[in-house]
Design goal:
Blueprint lengths: L2 E6 L4 E8 L4 E8 L5 H6 L6 E5 L3 E2 L18 E4 L1 E2 L12 H8 L2 E4 L3 H11 L2 E7 L6 H10 L6 H5 L5 E3 L5 E6 L4 H9 L3 E6 L4 H5 L5 E4 L12 H8 L5 E4 L1 H9 L4 E17 L5 E12 L9 E7 L5 E6 L4 E4 L14 H16 L5
Parallel strand pairs: 3-4, 4-6, 5-7, 6-8, 11-12, 11-13, 13-14, 14-19
Antiparallel strand pairs: 1-2, 1-9, 2-8, 3-9, 10-12, 15-16, 15-17, 17-18, 18-19
Helix pairs in contact: 8-9
């Protein structure tokens, strides 16, 4: 078995056993708290450029199946696990986790103390890291300096967004789904409601979107810093008031920026399928699936047309907002789950109701 090292920018070194691709990789090291759902987590485009640490100790035990992908091409930079299951047991399994990572060019490391690593990341926040071969030929001091000076990429959305528009036909409301790194789960939820969906690239212009006569606009999830997505905020500003709007994940952050708010980087990314969020209107607490490293700054909402609708119970951060001026709202978490609980799927129904009401009342004229 080949040895592999995870070297962090602060000089911490973890040595373990390599699996997956033989290639090395560098990225932002973050941890996720989900006990299951590793296939969806790895294939979620929001994880682009990240080395993902699974806090649950045994990963890969139910294999990889054809149905649970959230994107066709996973964009994660690497995977860290305590113990990898080499022989999965599940009737749906078509390959092992190791086989998937090998096929997709993603390196992994197992056999390290993931509890220690998680505590380190919890205390210091996300750290840049590199997965590299272990051995005397590796100059650790030079590698640490390389990782510390590495500049995280700012074009992650461009890497994971579709390059051309494509339809997902239905006979219901026409939805323009702007792909900033869309999870397939969002598309599935809209398809289940018979929406006529057209998925468009992240840099599609306002004119092009309105030419498709939308009944509603969905801003998808995606990776990285929302401030890096050039031109998008201006497009969202121009679309407000033209059709009802629903933002998810990165789409939530971009929607808030378009309304004049600010975003901030979290010390600890929210990743996993067990994050409690309170709906301030109903008082109901829902468990949610999350994957983000930035948040809307609540203080910056003063003077905007936004009001907070949801808050995280773990750290009090903003998890949802709605406009008091337009038929538009957004949430930081993933109502489609995939993986995680489906407590918040009703938000898609709320969006459907808004579109139908607005259509009957003739509130919008694209």
């Amino acid at each position: 078995m080949k040895k592999r090292m995870l070297i962090l920018e602060d000089g911490t070194i973890f040595e373990g056993i390599a699996f997956g691709s033989d290639e090395g990789s560098i990225g932002e090291t973050v941890f996720t708290t989900g006990m299951t759902g590793y296939q969806e987590t790895i294939s979620n485009p929001s994880g682009a450029g990240q080395i993902i640490v699974m806090t649950y100790p045994l990963i890969g035990n139910y294999g990889i199946n054809r149905d649970d992908y959230e994107s066709i091409e996973p964009a994660a930079s690497g995977l860290v696990v305590r113990e990898l299951a080499d022989e999965p047991s599940n009737f749906r399994s078509g390959m092992t986790l190791c086989e998937l990572l090998t096929m997709k060019g993603i390196p992994g490391i197992q056999g390290i103390d993931t509890r220690k690593l998680t505590r380190l990341l919890r205390d210091k926040g996300a750290l840049k890291g590199i997965l590299t071969a272990a051995g005397e030929e590796v100059n650790v001091q030079e590698t640490v300096a390389h990782v510390a000076s590495y500049v995280l990429p700012t074009d992650l959305v461009a890497r994971v967004s579709t390059q051309k528009p494509y339809p997902s036909p239905g006979r219901g409301e026409r939805i323009i789904l702007i792909d900033y790194g869309m999870k397939h789960g969002i598309l599935r939820e809209l398809n289940e409601r018979d929406c006529d969906v057209i998925v468009v690239p992240y840099n599609t212009t306002t004119k092009e979107i309105l030419s498709l006569s939308p009944d509603g606009i969905v801003l998808s999830n995606g990776p990285g810093n929302p401030m890096d997505v050039e031109g998008t905020v201006e497009v969202i500003k121009e679309l407000l008031g033209k059709a009802p709007m629903f933002g998810i994940g990165l789409g939530h952050q971009l929607f808030a920026l378009a309304c004049g708010a600010r975003t901030v980087k979290l010390k600890n990314s929210h990743m996993g399928g067990n994050h409690p969020v309170k709906d301030l209107a109903t008082g109901r607490t829902e468990l949610t699936s999350q994957c983000h490293g930035y948040s809307v700054d609540e203080e910056s909402l003063a003077g905007t047309n936004l009001e907070v609708t949801h808050k995280a119970l773990n750290d009090g951060s903003v998890e949802g907002v709605k406009s008091t001026k337009y038929e538009a709202f957004s949430v930081q978490f993933h109502p489609e789950a995939s993986p995680g609980p489906e407590d918040s799927k009703h938000l898609f129904d709320r969006f459907m109701d808004i579109m139908k009401t607005s259509s009957r009342e003739g509130n919008f004229n694209a």
